[in-house]
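Structure tokens please, single chain.
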Amino acid sequence: MAQFFLPVLSHFQNENFWTASDRRMRYLVTPKDSETLEAQVWEGPWGHAFSQMEEITSFPLSEEGLAQLKDWCVRWSETINARPPRSLEETIAMRDAALQAKASQSTDAES
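Here you go.
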């Protein structure tokens, strides 16, 4: 089982985000308000801006929520890291598809 370090509760209560990785699994945690953490996960090697999110979910901004977040991270790490390794061509195609999807979303939002 993967070992995950997450900041203490006050880190998020002070409106700080957290981003980290475990091998090919990447994740971002952001406090959305005084009661909620939003977590996003994707497969690397690319950063958030160049990737398609696999799941976006929320957790309570509490000690119990941090425990749930940690369990969620472990499950996603096991899932993503169990996949066969991707070739450079595959990872570039994934990045390009994510960028195209984001460009399409911003064009739709402007319409």
